[in-house]
User: Fold this.
Amino acid sequence: MRNIHERHIAASAERLGAVLETLATDHDQLWPGATWAPIILDRSLEPGSRGGHDGIRYTVSAHEPGRLVEFTFDQSTGIDGTHALTVVDRGDGTSLLRHVLDGRAHGAMVVLWPVAVRWAHDALVEDAFDLAEAALGVGPEVPARWSPWVRLLRKVRAAATDRTDVRQVDTPPELIRAAGLPSVDFTDTFTLRLPPGSSRNVEDWHRALITAGSPAWVAVLMAVRNRVARGMRLDTAGGPGGTSPFTLRSRVGDTLVVGADDKHLDFRGVLRVVDDVLQCATVVHEHNATGRAYFTVVKPFHRRIVPALLRRAHPGAPA
Assistant:
């Protein structure tokens, strides 16, 4: 396997090198994290730093600031070899941005590389080159476009990710206890398999769930829900003076509890990270007939909304 991408950049090697140095930082100007899985490294570009993107794992094996970053693939990736980004000074005030993947495939990657991985890799690298030119204000003159095959692969992968990364499981008894409600009328739990190199701090994931925002269809449902709740004069209707159901209530060890109390029911969301999995439990205590009627209507939507919010947070996994 030898895969090479090069782009002539109408900017000096020093300026392009500065863009290279932002790789895998909070102000990354090179990696197309908005449309592809983010690159996450545990110690930035320091040699020995481990991480990867999506399921591709590697370690920083060489770093020449402003000139070179080389990564060596982990055995689990299915490639024996390296991939590297290099900035080359052309001597005329312009530069060359080069990416070289050099290695040997083994295991499933022998089939996956020519069929799928190579095409996605090519598209990602070209998107990264576009970002570099945009950051420098010199292009791209003609933005890279995904081929129909890459678009199809991404749709298939998204569907597979939805099925495998978020799952419904039985609620662990300790999460029910952590909710601290006097009795439990409803509970469910969904889990999110965390991306490689992402944070295992439950507070980071609480923030990610809040900042990721909601899909448009969830926002519409929440607007309808709030109008109904206001008509019922419920405190959790939101708006000025309202009590958010996502208000942080407590954290004990690796378990964080959010929720709100109202005259019709008490709601708790319990978050916990165990190994490579984020657990998100919902626990509800209904006070009266209004609470039972309200949650009967809400329940079918709840079971679609929670997985949607978890998937929404997944691409922006906290480092």
About this structure: The chain is about 35% helix and 30% strand. The radius of gyration is 23 Å. The chain has two domains: 2-146, 166-316. Residues 166-316 form one domain.
